[in-house]
Amino acid sequence: MPTSALRRTQRPGDLADLSAAPDPRTSTTRYKVTGIRVLRSEWAKFWSLRSSWITLGVAVFLLVLFGAIASYTYGPGATTGRGPRPRGGSGGSDAVSLALTGVTFASLAVGVLGVLLAAGEYSTGMIRSTLTAVPRRLPVLWSKAAVIGPIVLVLTMIGALAAFQLGAPGLDGEKIALSLGDDGVLRGLTGAGVYLALVAVFGVALGVLVRSSAGAIAILVGTLLILPGLATLLPDSLYDSLHPYFPSNAGSAVYALHQSSDSLSPGAGLAVFAGWVALTLGGAAYRLRTSDS
After folding, report:
1. Based on the structure, what is the number of domains in the chain?
2. Which residues in 136-161 are b (16+ Cβ under 10 Å) and which e?
3. Which one-letter DSSP state was computed for residue 261?
4. Residues near 160 by Cβ (< 8 Å), separated by ≥ 6?
5. Residues 85-141 pLDDT 10s
6. Considering the domain boundaries, does residue 15 fall inside one?
């Protein structure tokens, strides 16, 4: 178009108005807060923390180390000797229980990681920036759980498989020796990863609910380790009825190779422990939605 024509069609102030007025529809679409974007931000925050790498590494290392040691030091008459007692209802009488001896220690590591991922933002004040960017709040909680759960699931499943394979030569010739193809072995090793992933989500829920790293870690340790011991003070009839439903006892049933007479089945244990985690997440969601940060 000739320059003279432009001069005829444009009036003073037209160029300034066009440059100063962005399309509101384009602006809203570009910066809209969506679930995927909140998830990506939580993913970036998770991997940017040095504590995430360290704690995950410690969890897998403890899982492999104690599993391999328990398998190589196994003796038919020494299952109740020194060292951490395997859980899962089988009393360390099979190769899977021995390989998963380190689950208790790994559960503390991933649980603490979940607490730090959530409560750490309250201690640093970063939660205010997070909730300013995500005013609906609840997507923050769901995204934290959705990030840490699958990561812990995959890494601890690999750790459980490594512990079993590394310990297999130590059990060569023993009656309890098993291979990956035997009935229930893969289910037990996979169940350990599922249990640890739920523990990590449980830690996130406690962190948001309590908003204090020290307080949430104390509750985590008390729930997973101390509560089953304190329950022995209950009358026998009440203890027998309740103790399979404690969080750690129900969780240990998930990865047990054989169901004992006083424990839940793997499916029932998973349902009960997932129920405890869901209940805690519900409490965390309610407090996150209704309380100031």
Report:
1. 1
2. ebebbbbbbbbbbbebbbebbbebbb
3. T
4. 63, 67, 99, 100, 103, 189, 190, 192, 193
5. 444 444 557 899 999 999 999 999 999 999 999 999 998 888 988 988 888 899 999
6. no
